[in-house]
Amino acid sequence: MHNFNCIHAIFLAIILTRIGVDTDDVTKLLNIPKGYNFFEIPFSPAVNNYTPPINVSFSTTIETIRKIDEVNKELTLGMEIILGWTDWKMLAFRKNLTPSQVLDLIREGKHNNRIPNMITLNNPEYLKAIWKPNLYIYDLEETSQPKLMSNLVTLKYDAEGGYINYITKVILRFSVPMEFEYYPLDTHAFTFRIRGFSYNENLLNLMWEKPPVFADHDHPNFDVQLESFAQSKAIIHDEKFNLLSFKIIFRRKISYHVVQTFIPSFLLILITWLCFFMPQRLVEVRVGICMTTVLTLTAMQDRQGSPKSAYVKALDIWMVNSIFFVFLILVQFALLIWLNNRKIECEKEETQDMSPPVSVNVRSATKNFPNRWNNGIYDVENGHGFYVKARKVRITAKRKLAIILRCIWILESVAFPMFLTLFFIFSGVYWGCLIVKSNFMNWPVPNKTLNPNL
């Protein structure tokens, strides 16, 4: 008799996987009880006037991280989902059991001994004729199924009982909260949550069949691992629902930005420092190098393709400060050019007249020596006789020249050590605060049960 039932079930499986059938045909072929209502929960028999909720097991394998969209803040996962439950009405009907016999079967645990007798069907039409749990997944935006010749859905059922196993492969796209304040040392987390939608905990007991498994960890931009899973309660409209969840964490791989951003920007700043070792007469060349460096850093900042946000990111602080340090050096070189021009003017002024001190009338001086005495005349137009000594002009020029030479010496000898010190102080504070506040180094040790491939 047992062999006949198995042959009959296999025959039905072949028929259902090769042809599409209506719901009524499925009901007849699978021997569903007459008057079966797939809107009613197939509870087990009541015990002492208490009807226990129907148990629905859930397990999943995260097969691939298909996409992490930082612009739209979305995460796309390729998952295998397995749901299992026992339809007690079908079990009692197929085995011709009374409610007390069903309870005895449950107490003995014989209803769990079903794996060897599971029959596989690849036609989801079977689900249309039986009760099935409706579940809600939080933050889910879109669902799709990969297919070759048909959707990847498998139904397994106990040929003699009422246990049903639903297996499917799906692609799920979720909305994920992402914060990029510490970009590119940012770490993100996503919590997958699923619960019963129409049935509270008194009607449906959603539980883990086994821990979730994360099979794929090879992502080009992030280190990813499954951190934990849990079973809890969710309160919706004063009703409690069983809630299953697992948490995925992903940390950005910083190697790209080290090679493409931080090292090049440091080398560009180093190039501007090398300008301090050029001869002073090449100060215009120094300015040209600094201008080119500023433009290069600006273009580098634009091409980074960092996530868009209304707030300042850590990478923005680094790039802006790099440009600012080059700007300070550019200001220093501009001051050197201005001081060198003033030095030349003072040297010319000093050599204009080396004659002994004499007193001359301003009016005659302007007539006879307009070029020589031009800098010494202050009140020619008011008609007063005004006298000035030539030696006073020479002493003033020397003082100006001494001050200018002193300023040039300070800029040449003090500016470079000062810029060097400020940059390394900034770098130490920047990296120290960034690493501590971002918790980038606090990456947990992977759980081998949840992450077998790590």
3D architecture notes:
- It is a single chain.
- α5 runs antiparallel to α6.
- The two termini are 48 Å apart.
- The protein is built from 9 helices and 14 strands.
- The radius of gyration is 42 Å and the shape is rod-shaped.
- A hairpin with a 2-residue loop joins β11 and β12.
- It has 454 residues and is α+β, with helices and mostly antiparallel strands.
- The longest helix is centred in the last third of the chain and has 49 residues.
- The protein has 2 domains: 252 residues, Distorted Sandwich (Acetylcholine Binding Protein, Chain: A); 183 residues, Neurotransmitter-gated ion-channel transmembrane domain (Methane Monooxygenase Hydroxylase, Chain G, domain 1), CATH 1.20.58.
Quick structural gist:
The chain has helices at 2-18, 23-29, 88-95, 99-108, 255-274, 283-302, 314-350, 362-368, 390-438, and strands at 54-69, 74-86, 118-121, 135-137, 140-144, 153-158, 163-175, 187-196, 204-208, 213-214, 222-236, 239-252, 359-361, 387-389.
Secondary structure layout:
Layout: H1 2-18, H2 23-29, E1 54-69, E2 74-86, H3 88-95, H4 99-108, E3 118-121, E4 135-137, E5 140-144, E6 153-158, E7 163-175, E8 187-196, E9 204-208, E10 213-214, E11 222-236, E12 239-252, H5 255-274, H6 283-302, H7 314-350, E13 359-361, H8 362-368, E14 387-389, H9 390-438
Helix pairs in contact: 5-6, 5-7, 6-7, 7-9
